[in-house]
Each structure stands twice: as C-alpha cells, then as structure tokens.
Design a protein that fits this description.
Chain lengths: 660, 198, 93
C-alpha cells in the first residue's frame, strides 16, 4: 500500500477529482472514437510516423492551442481567487501549484511549440527547401516536446503539481520545502522537452545555413527566416545551460547531491543564476520569431517592402549576443554588489536600443503604405503601442536601485505580461490567421477575428494595467490573497473582468475555426493576401514536396518581384525529387522518454533503467539503419501539379493570383 | 543520391555536408554544456562543507595517465581519418580500434580514480564540491562511454559495408566528437586538477 | 610515400605534448597563483585551437566561416557565463 501512496495527490480538492474524471472520460472517448471511425491507421501513417515539416508544424500548432487553454484555465482561476479580498476559492497550496503550472505551461508548452510550429511551417517554404536538414530528428524533437508536455500535465492528477513557481528557486524547490513529487515533474518534464528544443535549434540552424534556394544570400532571406535563424542560434547556446541546471536539480532531489542545498556547501543562488542564464535568452527565443511574423505581416498589408531590412537584421544579431549579457537583472536584490548590478543595468538598457530600432522600422514600413486592416494587421498595429509600454516599464525595472521597490510585485507581473501577450501571443494569433489559408485552404472569418482581437486587446488592458498600480502600491506577486484594508480589491476586480474578456476572446478563436471550416469559400488560390515572400509561391494546400522546381531568388521579396517585376521564379525542367522516409521510431522514443521521466519522478529505478536501455536500443538501430529516402518521380509530380491546375512548360508565365 | 567525386568521401553528398555542419553546431551547444559545468565547479570548489578539499583528494599519477592516453587517442583517430582519406580501409579500422582501446584505458583509470575518491571519504553526497566535481567528470566520462559504443558501431559498419559516402561521413563526425572530448579534457586537466593541486 | 606520411598530425601531436608538459610546470614548480593560472589559460586555449585546426579540419569546407563563427560565438558566451557567474556569486558577493 505504501508503494501506491506516492501516486496520491497531497492536496486534493473537488476540482482536481472532477478533472481526473474528465481526463479519464475524454481519454476513453478519444480511444473509442478512433476505434469506431477506424482512424488508428490514418493517425499512424499520416501523423505519428510523419517526418514532413508541415505536418509536424501542424502538430505543434494543435499542441500549443491545447496548452493555451490549459494555462488559460490556471490564469482565470488565479484571477478569480484574487478578484475579491480574502477569497476562499483556492487555498494557499492550490494557488501555489496553479501559478507554477501556469508559468511553465505558458512559456515552455504553449509559446515554445507555437514558435516551433511557425518555424516548421514557414521556414523551409520561405527558403525554397524540400524539408529541414534532418527531417527525422525534427519528428523526434516534436515527440520529445510532446512527451515532456504530457508528463508535466499529468502531474496534477498523479502525485501532485510542482508548487515552487515557474522559476523553481532553491531551497524552496529542494526536498526540505517541496516534499511532494511535484518538483520532480518540473525537472524531468522540462528536461525532456528541452532536449527536443535543442535538437530543433541545431536542425534549423543547419537548414537555414545550407538549404537556401539558389540566389538567396543571407541578406536576401525573408525576415521571418532571419528571426527564426537568430532564435535558433540562441536555442543552441542557451538550452544546454538549462539541461545542466535541471540535471543538478534532479541530482539534489533524487540522489542527495548538494548543489543548491543550504547544507554541506551547497549554494541556492547558483540555481537562480543558471536559471536566468538560460531564462533571459529564452525571452528572446520567444520574441524574435514574433518580430519576424510582424515584419512579414506589416510589409504585406502595407503593400511595401520592409523598411530598413539591414538595420532589422543587425539589430537581431546584436540582440542575440546581448541577450546573454543581461541575466542578473532578474535578481538585482539577491545580494551581489552595486558594481555587478550597475553593469547589468547598463547592458539591460542597451538591449532596449535594438528593439527600439525595430519599432521604428515597422512604423516607417506603414508610412505612406496602403494599409489593409485585416485581422493579422490589426494584431500588428495593436502590438506596437502596447509592446512599447511593456518595453518602457522594462527600462524602469532595469534600474537596479529602483528595482528594490518593484521586485516581486505585481508591477513586474504586469510588465512581463505586457511584453509577452502583445509581443508573443498577438504575434502567434496574427500568424495563425495569416498562415491559416496556406495550410488549411480557407480563410478564417474576418468579422469573428476582429471581435477576437478587440476582446483580447480590451481584456488585456483591463487585466494587466491595474497591476502596475497595485504593484507600485506594494501588492506582492504569488500571494494567494490580501486583506480588504490594502485597498487592492477594486483594481483586482477590474483585472478579473479583463481576464474573463480574454477567456471569451480565446473561445471565439475556436468558434472561428469551426465557423470558417463550415462556411468559408475554398477557391482562394495560392496567394489570398497578395503577399510578398516565397512561401506564397507554391500551391494551397502545399504539396508534399513544397516546390515542383527549385525557385530562383532575386531578393527578400522574390515572390513580389515575380508578380510585379517579371522575375522568373521557376526555371528549367521538373526533375525527380528526393524525399525522406517515414519512421515510427521518433514516436516510440517519445513514449520511452515519457516512461523514463515518469519513472524518475517516482524514483522507480527498474522501469527507469529498462526504458533507458530502450532509448539506447533505438539509437543503435538508427546507427545501423541504411536510410536513403525515396524519390517522387517526374510523372507523379506532373500529375500532382496538373491537379492544382498548373500549366507546365511555360516558364516565364506570370502566376495568376486570387485576391480577397 | 548525387555523389560529388571532387570532394573527400565524407563531404561527397548534400546530406553528408548537412550532417557535418549540424554536428559542428551541436559541438557549439556542447561548449555551453561544459561551460555551465565548469561554472558550477568554479563556484562550488571551495565550498567543501565538512568534506575534503580538492588538494586533499587529487592525485597526479592517474591524471597524468588519463591525459596522455586521451591525447594519444586524439592523435590516433587523426591518423585514422588520414588513412580514410587515402582510401586505406584496413589502416583506418586499425587506428580507430587503437583509439577505442585507449578510450577504454582512460575509462578504466577514471573508474579507479572514482574508487579512490570513495575510499578517502569523498562521495557524491559529501559536499557541493564533490557533487560538482563528479558531475563534471561524469559527464565527460559518460560522453567517452557513449563514444566507445558509437565508435564500435562505426568500425563494424566500415568493415561490413566498406568506405562509402555514408560510413566515411559517420567516421569523420565521430572523429570530431572524439577530438572535442579531448579538448574538454584539456580544460578539466588544467582548471580542475592542476588548479586544484597548485 | 610523401603523402602517406601524416606530417600535420604528427606535428600537432608533438606540439600538444609540449603544451601539456608546460602546463605541468604549474604543478612541479613553485609559482604564484596568478602566474600559474596565466600559464594554464594560455596553454589550454592554444591546445584547443590546435585540435580545432589540425585534427578537426574546422576550416576545410565551404562552411569554414560558419563553423569558426559558431565556435567563436560559443566560446564568447561560455566565457561570459563563467566569469559573469563568478562575478555575481563570488567576487562581488
């Protein structure tokens, strides 16, 4: 009986029991549904074993949307608890668990897969490649991310959620103060998905460096590809730090090591240090691809080339280096001297400069442009002022002396949500709306989309701006309640109303997908937005091989050149196309890694060792495998192209496009 | 698969070139992995709690053996790649086998070293210093262990399949990995052992 | 016969042995910590560079620039991380 005790939840509540039942029912429903409609084979052949970057991208997208709702549920519960003074909706422990999982899920299991989704979907198309450099590794990256995300998400029904904050500072996260297995879940789940992220980083750096279409020099790459490139460079150099920090945290918790303990020489501050050596670059990993998406969207809907392409590129290169030089600003109050704090104050303010450059680039791109106010453009226009406010409060926080007042208050919470929501989340929704037709063949309804935009924007302002005020007045973050005498009540109620509006906004996205799937016209052509870069030069939906002939590149707006300036994008004859083979091994490895993680969480050493041997066997098999891929033959390509209505043999014919 | 005969075998296909570049980028990540371990070690090396200090447990003899064995193995795998580029399969396989044997000797001495630490009262749980030391050495040793398996698989493939673009590519990438482990060891040798005994 | 003899590798090996012996002076002779650390830093980085160029052929392919940039970038960030952390946690604490 004692053996099973560890799987019980340490702090049960009716809500958690209800979730257990709901999870069980939904799981059964999915299994029964798949069996009834005979979809297992389809799922296995088309999705689980795929190495196609577009399908992997779509799987990332679905995961990100699911996690958005998981993290959103946490958020709305927190705001409901804080809406009135001394509320009893959640107790302190439950509140701790919820703000912890909200942070981890939103950053690592929502925002990360969202940007990986767009990288997977867009980058190979934008550079005119067939796929990424290592398609099978790409599938493995996804399944590792997915295994990590699932492992993290079962924590609240098996063994208990982590409760030491998304930063999981020691000694709070050590065995003495976090006695449940929750923090083990944190260490293992993030480790597994982090390894996946690192592999994605290597994969996309190689892809972008080596697989660009002829004529595309580095300075002719579309801006989203540039941003993805820089973000992946940061991934490659930042994630190993997290890997080591998590390894040490795991060793402390499971093997009695003394890295971050308060006895035998351990140093808890080292964790905070490592966490932010990774954590600050991570912020830029999320925001740079978002900037890339905004650049594409603003340029398309202003009908103009991106203003200051070179300054945009160089500001991102600068950010990639500077992002590794500012980490101390997350713990100015930890006790290091004024010299250190001053150095990192200055570097932090310096990093605001390249970001400011970008803001002006976007503004000048719109200047004298013919702006079309579509949903993606609305998000982009909303982003600029809102994000600037977030940036300015960031510079306030960068002043280390003043930070002693702001540190750990709601002011900080308001600041980082003010950058992440208009910065990253709006970009993801803008990108979702913008690229939806390319991959699903219909446009999301503009009316509902605009409603979503306004709900989210108004909701965002109401939810987070009051926190600046209560934060300056001294409301601490991560406190599960406050007394009426503090006077924080009314403003927190406003925040709750804002959060509720945002929740409605997110639901309208789902409704929009459903509504548009039913009602949107399907004859939209391959270029519904009259766009400028290469991803719009192929068919909709994109064929497996992306481009029948490798495109010839003239500039970063090469598709625009081909439409308006007579640039011949596709030359020469169609040839056989080499494609990578499918494989079920990445999926199997995802499952094995899930078992490894789960066994480590509960210190079940026998299954852990067996599963690790399984990982080793998979790697050995891969080493001996002779995998040459296969070819799609010319005849087949011509048939596919004909199905899209493509007239071949006329090389320099301008492409027909349909506009909305 | 297009093969470009103007290039050495390991670079001769597009996928081969991707693999080599990708592996270099992976080595960039490995630099940061070991840099983080070194950061932890430097921060914690004086924090010995009630356990022994670095100077009390380090011994020069096993460290010297490990260093010269690993340096030599880096040389022999370099000779292996040289032989491979000349198309001399048997010489290449021999040099790779010698390299792996030297790696095995290195690991043996390292195991002996860990047993020595255990006997003088420095276990993984003793102090922050011992944990940082053993995690750093263990991560390097783990890489060597993985390399022994990986190298063996490559030798088997070269013997069975001959020198093809695929096997040459794998062997070349493996040599990069092995040289990199040597570089990491030089830093461990200099900044953990010699600094600790100075 | 000339191209059979791996002159480059032998040179590299001899040089790395010499560097190791120089580094060992730190242990076998009596010198101040500052001098010792300087010697170790110089010998270790030269050795690393030697391995990179002589044995790993870092610059030989079309991607030589990308590879050197990648390694240099990694080394810069690694050095910043090591010394920045030491500054925060030890020297200025």
């Amino acid at each position: 009986m004692e053996f099973f005790q560890r799987f019980a939840i340490p702090h049960p509540s009716p809500a958690i029991y209800a979730s257990m039942v709901a999870i069980a029912l939904v799981s059964i429903a999915i299994v029964v549904g798949l069996t009834y409609f005979k979809k297992w084979g389809y799922l296995w052949h088309e999705w689980f074993t795929t190495v196609d970057h577009k399908k992997i991208g779509i799987m990332y997208l679905i995961s990100a949307l699911l996690m958005l709702f998981r993290g959103g549920a946490d958020a709305i519960m927190m705001r409901a608890q804080l809406a009135t003074p001394e509320a009893k909706l959640l107790d302190a422990q439950h509140y701790n668990e919820i703000f912890t999982t909200h942070g981890v899920v939103m950053i690592l299991f929502m925002a990360m897969p969202f940007i990986f989704a767009f990288m997977n979907l867009i980058v190979p198309l934008q550079i005119g490649a067939r796929d990424v450099a290592f398609p099978r590794l790409n599938a493995l990256s996804f399944w590792l991310f997915f295994a990590g995300a699932m492992l993290f998400n079962i924590s609240f029904v098996i063994g208990g959620s982590p409760d030491a904050g998304w930063t999981s500072y020691f000694p709070l996260a050590g065995n003495d103060f976090s006695t449940s297995v929750g923090t083990n879940y944190y260490m293992l789940a993030i480790q597994i998905s982090g390894i996946g992220s690192l592999m994605t980083g290597i994969n996309f750096c190689t892809t972008i460096l080596k697989m660009r279409a002829p004529g595309m020099t580095l300075m002719k790459m579309p801006m989203f590809t540039w941003s993805a490139f820089i973000a992946n460079i940061i991934v490659v150099f930042a994630f190993p730090v997290l890997t080591v920090a998590l390894l040490m945290g795991t060793a402390d918790r499971l093997f009695g090591a003394n890295f971050f303990t308060t006895a035998n020489g351990g140093m808890d501050m080292l964790w905070a240090n490592f966490f932010w050596v990774w954590g600050h670059p991570e912020v830029y990993i999320l925001i740079l691809p978002a900037f890339g998406l905004y650049s594409e969207i603003i340029s398309t809907f202003s009908g103009r080339n991106l203003y200051g392409y070179k300054s945009m590129v160089w500001s991102m290169v600068l950010i990639s280096l500077l992002s590794f030089l500012v980490w101390t600003h997350h713990f100015f109050t930890m006790g290091q001297g004024a010299l250190t704090n001053s150095i990192f104050s200055i570097t932090t303010m310096a990093i605001a400069v390249p970001t400011g450059v970008k803001i002006f680039n976007w503004l000048f791109t719109m200047w004298k442009g013919k702006i079309r106010f579509t949903v993606p453009m609305l998000y982009s226009i909303g982003f600029i002022p809102l994000f600037t406010i977030g940036g300015v409060t960031g510079v306030m926080l960068a002043m280390s002396a003043a930070d002693y007042q702001y540190h750990n208050t709601m002011f900080l919470v308001a600041h980082f949500h003010n950058t992440i929501i208009p910065g990253v989340v709006f970009a993801m929704l803008a990108g979702l709306t913008y690229y939806w037709p390319k991959f699903f063949g219909f446009i999301l309804n503009e009316k509902i989309g605009k409603l979503t935009f306004w709900l989210l924007t108004v909701g965002f302002v109401l939810a987070f701006f009051p926190m600046y005020i209560t934060g300056l007045d001294g409301q601490a973050r991560r406190m599960y309640t406050y007394s009426e005498a503090t006077g924080f009540g009314p403003l927190n109620m406003v925040s709750f109303v804002g959060a509720a509006l945002m929740a409605i906004g997110f639901v309208t996205i789902v409704y929009n997908i459903y509504y548009s799937f039913k009602n949107s016209p399907r004859n939209i052509g391959s270029d519904p937005w009259d766009a400028r870069s290469l991803e719009w030069a192929t068919h909709t939906p994109v064929p497996e091989y992306n481009f029948a002939r490798v495109p010839q590149i003239s500039s970063s707006q090469t598709f625009w050149d081909s439409k308006k300036n007579g640039h011949a994008l596709f030359k020469g004859e169609i040839e056989d196309i080499h494609m990578p083979n499918k494989s079920g091994v990445p999926f199997v490895m995802g499952i094995i890694f899930f078992i490894v993680g789960f066994s480590f969480v509960f210190a079940l050493w026998v299954p852990a060792v067996i599963a690790l041997i399984g990982v080793f066997v998979c790697m050995t098999l891969r080493s001996f495998e002779q995998d040459h891929g296969y070819h799609i033959h010319v005849k087949e390509i011509k048939e596919t192209e004909a199905k899209y209505g493509e007239v071949l043999n006329s090389e320099d014919r301008p492409r027909t496009t349909t506009r909305v | 698969m297009k093969i470009d005969h103007a290039q050495p075998l390991e670079y001769s296909t597009d996928q081969n070139q991707l693999n080599i570049l990708g592996f270099w980028i992976f080595l960039g990540a490995e630099i940061m992995l070991f840099a983080t371990l070194f950061t932890a070690y430097f921060t914690l090396s004086h924090r010995t709690g009630s356990g022994p200090t670095p100077a009390e447990i380090f011994e020069i003899t096993p460290v010297l053996i490990e260093t010269f064995v690993l340096l030599t193995s880096s040389f022999t795998i370099g000779l292996g790649i040289h032989a491979m580029r000349l198309g001399r399969k048997n010489a290449m396989v021999s040099f790779f086998a010698i390299t792996l044997l030297l790696g095995l000797v290195f690991l043996g001495v390292e195991v002996f070293e860990f047993m020595h630490y255990y006997h003088v009262g420095a276990t993984y749980q003793t102090s922050a210093f011992t944990a940082a030391l053993m995690t750093t050495l263990g991560t390097h040793g783990g890489h060597v262990t993985l390399g022994l398996f990986w190298g063996t698989f490559i030798i088997i493939q070269v013997i069975k399949r001959g020198l093809t673009p695929q096997t040459a590519n794998k062997a070349f990438i493996f040599s990069l990995y092995w040289h990199f482990l040597d570089v990491v060891w030089i830093f461990i040798f200099s900044f953990i052992y010699l600094k600790g005994m100075m | 016969m000339k191209e059979l003899f791996p002159a480059k590798q032998v040179m590299g090996f001899v040089f790395s042995l010499i560097l190791t012996v120089i580094a060992l002076l730190v242990y076998y002779t009596d010198m101040s910590f500052a001098v010792g650390m300087t010697i170790l830093l110089v010998t270790a980085f030269i050795q690393a560079f030697l391995q990179l160029v002589v044995f790993m052929h870092a610059g030989e392919s079309k991607e030589g620039t990308a590879i050197y940039t990648n390694i240099l970038y990694g080394v810069i960030i690694a050095v910043v991380t090591v010394f920045g952390s030491l500054l925060i946690l030890i020297w200025d604490m």
